[in-house]
């Protein structure tokens, strides 16, 4: 009987994908595909948080798809002959503007988040930009809402290309599935209380009415097998991904965390793993492994459009 301790997100995932070493955009997403979870029955996951307590949270979080939008225009001298060019930056700007007008159609209950960045807007200030690149994530707390927001995002960016006569290519890749609210097993709660002792508070929170806007690849694993998550504080800062994030309590962030992992594993596996086997038997997975792979492949798409009225350079 095996329990895995889920690894953190791979910092080099985009590079690995470009090199053909992984297929999907998330660490655990690809680990499932290559069989790393085939002999795993139950998972314990952890995330550091800001504060000075241990948090065991029952709640849902967003899933997402990722997009890269590439506009192709035609270069020309920006002052001498702008009429001969097709401005890819203008097309991208119109696409971003059109996206804003979609936001009133997103329902609050779906926690939709679309947050693009522009990674390229031209090369030289005196040249009409012939290429602009936008990247974005499209998030929501259920698959239907993700697909709806994804389609509206595509329409907006396609419209920007049509408006100025540029070309556009929209590449969509699967990101993470939404996380599923689950009750923490008694073994995890008791292990947290024992590890925290009298020094730290253990807060068991039911947050199902307020889904998180963030995302994690734990959501994918949850669709195949049980995952139980806890957070430990010991950090300060204005946010988990802020530049001022720092660990200020190493005992809570590191030592208490390790104790909770070890004590929970011991309690679940003790006595022939009776407690762990019951959790696995009671769990109702949403996907088989093959269904998961089929779903992931169905989310990969590439759309092209626009109204190019020029010859390729």
Mean pLDDT: 90
Q: What gross morphology would you assign?
A: elongated
H/E topology pattern? EHHEEEHEEEHEHEEHEEHHE
Distance from first to last alpha carbon: 61 Å
Quote the beta fraction: 25-35%
Helical content stands at: 25-40%
Specify Rg, calculated over alpha carbons: 23 Å
Largest beta-sheet details? 7 strands, mixed
Please give the count of helices: 8
Low-confidence stretches: 6-11
Tell me the layout of helices and strands.
Layout: E1 3-5, H1 13-18, H2 27-33, E2 42-50, E3 53-58, E4 61-72, H3 88-100, E5 113-114, E6 117-120, E7 131-140, H4 143-164, E8 167-176, H5 186-196, E9 201-206, E10 212-215, H6 218-222, E11 227-236, E12 246-247, H7 250-282, H8 289-298, E13 301-306
Parallel strand pairs: 1-2, 2-11, 3-9, 4-10
Antiparallel strand pairs: 3-11, 4-7, 4-8, 5-7, 6-7, 8-13, 11-12
Helix pairs in contact: 3-4, 5-7
Q: What's this entry about, in short?
A:
This protein is α/β, with parallel strands linked by helices and 313 residues long. It has helices at 13-18, 27-33, 88-100, 143-164, 186-196, 218-222, 250-282, 289-298; strands at 3-5, 42-50, 53-58, 61-72, 113-114, 117-120, 131-140, 167-176, 201-206, 212-215, 227-236, 246-247, 301-306. Strands 4, 5, 6, 7, 8, 10 and 13 form a seven-stranded mixed sheet that branches.
């Amino acid at each position: 009987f095996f329990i895995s301790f889920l690894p953190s997100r791979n910092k080099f995932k985009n590079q690995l994908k470009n090199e053909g070493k992984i297929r999907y955009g998330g660490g655990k997403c690809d680990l499932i595909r290559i069989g790393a979870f085939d002999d795993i029955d139950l998972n314990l996951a952890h995330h550091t948080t800001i504060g000075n307590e241990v948090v065991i949270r029952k709640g849902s979080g967003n899933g997402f798809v990722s997009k890269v939008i590439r506009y192709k225009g035609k270069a020309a001298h920006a002052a001498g002959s702008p009429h001969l060019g097709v401005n890819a930056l203008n097309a991208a700007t119109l696409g971003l503007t059109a996206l804003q007008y979609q936001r009133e159609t997103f329902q609050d209950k779906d926690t939709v988040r679309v947050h693009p960045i522009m990674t390229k807007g031209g090369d030289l200030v005196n040249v009409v930009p012939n290429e602009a690149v936008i990247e974005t994530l499209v998030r929501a707390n259920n698959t239907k809402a993700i697909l709806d927001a994804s389609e509206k995002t595509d329409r907006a960016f396609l419209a920007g290309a049509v408006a100025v006569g540029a070309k556009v290519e929209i590449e969509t890749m699967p990101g993470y599935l939404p996380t599923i609210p689950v009750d923490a097993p008694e073994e995890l709660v008791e292990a947290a209380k024992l590890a925290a002792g009298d020094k730290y508070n253990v807060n068991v929170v039911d947050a199902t009415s307020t889904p998180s806007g963030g995302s994690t690849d734990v959501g994918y694993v949850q669709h195949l097998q049980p995952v139980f998550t806890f957070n430990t504080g010991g950090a300060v800062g204005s946010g988990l991904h802020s530049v001022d994030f720092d660990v200020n309590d190493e005992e809570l962030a590191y030592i208490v965390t390790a104790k909770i992992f070890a004590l929970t594993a011991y309690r679940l596996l003790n006595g022939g793993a009776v407690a762990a086997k019951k959790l696995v038997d009671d769990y109702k997975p949403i996907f088989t492994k093959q269904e998961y792979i089929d779903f992931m492949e169905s989310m990969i798409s590439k759309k092209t459009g626009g109204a190019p009225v020029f010859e390729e350079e």
